[in-house]
Amino acid sequence: LHQDIRKRVFEQAKSALAPNHEKAAIVVRGGDSAQFNLYDSDCTKSVFRQEAYFLYLFGLVLPDCYGVLDLERKQTLLFVPKIEDDMQRWLGTRKNLSWYSERYLADHTYHTDQLAAQLAKRNIEHIHVLSGTNTDSGLPTPMVVNFPGMDKFRKHVDKLHPFLTEMRVIKTPMEVEYLRVCNRVSSQAHVYVMRHTHPGMNERHLEALFKAYTSYYGGARHLAYTAICASGANGAILHYGWAGNPNDQPLRSGESVVLDMGAEYNGYCTDLTRSFPINGKFTKQQRTVYEAVLDAHDQVIDALKPGVNYADMHRLAERVLVKHLMKMGILVKGTEHEMEEASMAAVFMPHGLGHFVGLLTHDVGGFPPGAEIDPMTAGPKRPDKPGLKWLRMHRVLKENMVLTVEPGLYFNDPTLDKALANPQQARYIDQKVLALYRGSGGVRIEDDVVITKDGVEVLSGALPVQPDDIEAVMKSNLKDREQRKLFD
Amino acid sequence: LHQDIRKRVFEQAKSALAPNHEKAAIVVRGGDSAQFNLYDSDCTKSVFRQEAYFLYLFGLVLPDCYGVLDLERKQTLLFVPKIEDDMQRWLGTRKNLSWYSERYLADHTYHTDQLAAQLAKRNIEHIHVLSGTNTDSGLPTPMVVNFPGMDKFRKHVDKLHPFLTEMRVIKTPMEVEYLRVCNRVSSQAHVYVMRHTHPGMNERHLEALFKAYTSYYGGARHLAYTAICASGANGAILHYGWAGNPNDQPLRSGESVVLDMGAEYNGYCTDLTRSFPINGKFTKQQRTVYEAVLDAHDQVIDALKPGVNYADMHRLAERVLVKHLMKMGILVKGTEHEMEEASMAAVFMPHGLGHFVGLLTHDVGGFPPGAEIDPMTAGPKRPDKPGLKWLRMHRVLKENMVLTVEPGLYFNDPTLDKALANPQQARYIDQKVLALYRGSGGVRIEDDVVITKDGVEVLSGALPVQPDDIEAVMKSNLKDREQRKLFD
Ligand SMILES: [Mn+2]
Ligand SMILES: [Mn+2]
Predict the structure, then answer these.
(1) What mean pLDDT comes out for the span B308-315?
(2) What is the DSSP string of B277-319?
(3) How far is B270 from chain A (nearest CA, A)?
(4) Mean pLDDT across the stretch A210-239?
(5) Please, which of A1, A125, B92, B471 could form a disulfide with A23 given CB 3.0 to 4.6 Å?
(6) Contact B272, B190 (CB under 8 A)
(7) Strand B228-231 vs strand B75-80: parallel, antiparallel, or unpaired?
(8) To which H or E segment does residue B24 belong?
(9) CB-based contact A49 B38, cutoff 8 Å
(10) What is the CA radius of gyration of chain A?
(11) What is residue B394's predicted lDDT score, i.e. its pLDDT?
(12) Rounded CA gap, A222 and A310, in Å?
């Protein structure tokens, strides 16, 4: 996988990065162990995970490394920390440097203190390093290249970040296969959770079951993101599951859950959501909301293909949702056009339709290179319009992009109250009908897709999405549900 | 729990911290959300965990908070971040400030931007803040108090860290009960793993099973530390399971495992290890090594009581192990005294006998207050002697201290090779006999105990430790082992 990626980098890097100079190399610093300290403890926050750009190029999950691509010789060099003699009883017998070269298909491996010397030996004059901003978090490139002797080389910071970011946007066939595997395991785990959900359990049990399945069967030591296991009204809280709402509420019959959970597989992420009734049977109202979201989901997936602008897909999903909200009698006294002008869809879906997925759950490259910069945020300029302004991905689709489609419909009190306080929006809302839905939480349906030559492949296609299919899955486990002792 | 702790702090703080001044307060800063960023991603490394001193005093698991104890009025103040209007759709409807006061039994709750103003309103002149070094990691206090307007108060950094550290060393009855619960869940989970271990599985399955059990039944979102699931020769690698050795090797019949795994329960940690044969039946050699470690374990537990110096317990364990190594014929041609002079035990147990357990797995206070400082490390001075110099805890035991007892015996190649290269040690080693054991890994037996009035209570007493009992547990699952499909 990573060798294949490096081959592509070598093919394109010379013209992209160094058209005017010879003797150039790419230098990337991997994640450091200190970042994983749990405060002043000598235990860690979590098992070390590699920084994504470094992992992308080198595939090595070890803290405190450097990687170099010698663009002149098209060679890969790894620089790994030296395990001191006395540390071997803690970390295992030191491996030969050639072990790394063989395992990670590098040309040479050295200790990190050799970095400047080896670059000099190769007469490298120009080094290209990563420097940029993540458009989702607004955070700068975390692993700043900084090694003794660096001042002897001419450092270039402009081109590498956009170049590698654009490479990461288009997945290689092997990357798609990794994402397919990851989606399959997470899909099966979602089914497993569905089959074991019943009233009387707690939200945290659903998180536990998902983790159990993906770690046991998927070898996933990490989730791709904090599990969102939101029942009842909590379903309307988009990032439920964080420390302030730690998936700790009881599951009640008659309510539904929004489960947004995905595992990581060799660094590649899945991002999947299903919503279903806790007792296994949709009420009429639950089904109405669900089918509205499903309609938006299906229409978007049908429309996806190369050449389509994803912002238009967001607008399509909004239009479908508005149509359903009008049919439900929640939105009234206006035309579809007027509703769109008033951003009514964003009151019920206060987030973007989707985002890239890859080595990050919210993968990089959501804004095209050269996108206009907003002086306020130093990030790319976003539209003003509620809804669209939350979209993480404003791109014309190309083959082998991998992204989520995740429309939702929520009854989120602060968002609704804000709309009701705004006469431009309140005029379209029937408060009596809305009251019937308030407190029921929400529905989100999220799948991961790869853009193909003329459409999409749904990577999470194994995960049931039709309400009848979900009911069938949940029914298959009903009879022995109560007596089953899961972990005997 | 935390109110009870604060009561004790209020009783003692005045004389310990502020004998010479009135108008004093303790100001503690909680953990911040930024520390949990996964590089530049907007996902996190793991779910937020609270900094231990803050958790100890306030019990609130929310990032970016401050807590204040007004020593004059004996009042507790919480300062929580304000959730902006638009963030409510992500994080849930903002809670009233009084919600925090009620839930966490504080006298008042404010937003963090009110910190200086509220201190001033109370005429606080002196603030005591945490500043010190963790003796296990060598890292400084992580959450430095730093708020706008702080310069108006007189800051004291000397006394709070040692004062609260000493408080944390002696657990309250409720803290012991939390640790008891945590130990019970982790003990049951170890039994569950034992019952489902068989050849052909992978180390990672054992980690997955332990996490599944503790999260499903124990509500444990976190392990207390990275799981060590080391099979065969890996058992001799003390921190196996880290990113460079990620618990990914197959389990082979005839080999044994060292499983060092513990869950966290409301911030309190467990630290438990069991070692057993993968096929459920000790070989004669495996039993010999196991019983040597068990003898050391039992003799230490029998000897523990208030007034005992834990360094003496480490020496006791070493003496027992040496006796067994002599019986096994690995150590020869010397008296026990000569073996001790040559630090032979440390060749086979290259770590300390145990450490405090509490809000950290390696809990604070391992060196008594006023311990001599080593100018090289800025930490407490440690003995030179191999073995003892690795001991994390040099204290005379008192009632309600909670600590681990974890003797081990390992065949770690770099450590053995180093000893064989040292004539002072090599002379006592029979290399032919040693060769029979090399490659077999190691055995560690670790329990958590609380010191009682005249002995100990083993908090992990529910976890079998006798080899016959372990075999019985593993046998109980043998017949249906192969056909069982764990997560159906
Ligand atoms: Mn998503
Ligand atoms: Mn331990």
Answers:
(1) 96
(2) ETTS---HHHHHHHHHHHHHHHHHHHH--TT-BHHHHHHHHHH
(3) 13
(4) 94
(5) A125
(6) yes
(7) unpaired
(8) strand B24-29
(9) yes
(10) 25
(11) 92
(12) 29
The strands making up A75-80's β-sheet, listed across from edge to edge, are: A108-111, A75-80, A66-70, A24-29, A126-128, A154-156
Tell me the CATH class for B2-169. alpha beta
Token pair in block for residue B354: 């145990």
B249-267 residue pLDDT tens: 999 999 999 999 999 999 9
A165-213 confidence digits (pLDDT tens) = 999 999 999 999 999 999 999 999 999 999 999 899 999 999 999 999 9
User: Which fold does the domain B173-475 belong to in CATH?
Assistant: Creatine Amidinohydrolase (3.90.230)
Strand, helix or coil at B93? coil
Closest CA to A223 of A193, A268, A192, A259: A268
Residues of B with Cβ-Cβ distance to A89 under 8 angstroms? 236-238, 350-351, 410, 412, 414-415
Q: Given a cut of 50, is residue B483 above it in pLDDT?
A: no
Of the candidates A37, A205, A361, which has its C-beta nearest B43's C-beta? A361
Q: Are A145 and A97 in contact (CB under 8 A)?
A: no
Cross-chain residue pair B216–A239, CB shorter than 8 Å: no
Nearest to A67 by CA among A147, A166, A11: A147
Chain B nearest-CA residue for A415? B89
- Cβ contact (<8 Å) for B243 and A61? yes
Encoded tokens for A40: 């002043």
Whether residue B41 and residue A136 make contact (CB cut-off 8 A), yes or no, is yes
Residues 6 or more apart whose Cβ sits within 8 Å of residue B81: B62, B63, B64, B65, B111, B112
pLDDT at A133 over 50: yes
- Locate A333 and state its tokens: 């006294």
Interface contact A91-B212, CB threshold 8 A: no
Q: Which value does ipTM take for this structure?
A: 0.92
Taking the CA of residue A220 and the nearest CA in chain B, the distance in Å comes to 9
Ligand in closest contact with the CA of A406: 1
Q: To probe the interface with A, which of B37, B39, B143, B261 has the most A CB atoms within 10 Å? A: B39
CA distances from A73 to A76, A77, A173, B263 (A): 9, 11, 26, 50
Alpha helices in B353-466 (DSSP H): 413-420, 423-426, 431-437
| Sign of the four-CA dihedral A417, A422, A425, A429 | positive
User: For all residues of chain A together, what is the average pLDDT?
Assistant: 93
| Chain A, nearest residue to B88 by Cα | A414
Q: Distance (Å) from the C-alpha of residue B153 to the closest C-alpha of chain A?
A: 26
Is A34 exposed, middle or buried, given 0-12, 13-18 or 19+ CB atoms closer than 10 A? exposed
